[in-house]
Specification:
By secondary structure, the protein is mainly alpha-helical. It has helices at about 5-25, 30-60, 65-85, 90-115, 120-125, 135-145, 150-155.
Amino acid sequence: MNAQQLLENMADLESRIAVIYERFVARFHDVPDVRALWESMSREELRHAELLSLAAGAARSLIADPMAVDHLARLRAVVEQDEAEQSEVVHLQEALRVTADLEEAEAEHLHATLNALGDVARSLVNNPTMEHRSRRLLEYAVQLFGTPALQERVAWRRFHD
């Protein structure tokens, strides 16, 4: 896989995550605080997808580091699992767990993928728009509405980049 393909795949994953959040917005529209969180997170993911797509156009045919490909595969696995699960989510706590899963996977693999690409992705690594600003809001939502196990997991893990 070349760097352009890798960045295009990452953009696709970010867009798919945005769709999951948009579905949660619709499903939990009666909880304004959490609805606003997912609306914000969805906008963030779409912006990331846009930036990744732009970078893909400039990457052309440079070969991607195998570590970057591995990180992408791990992120894809989490997204695919959560896409399958999100259609069955009926409880707010489960939606927050899926969201935490996605954000943890992004925290672990998105920037690692970009770093593994080196100079091709340097501008993205250093771009403040690629940060996940909504993560602190997610932590707060989990504090208010999450299960004790999820609260403990999020408090231990923290989503700060």
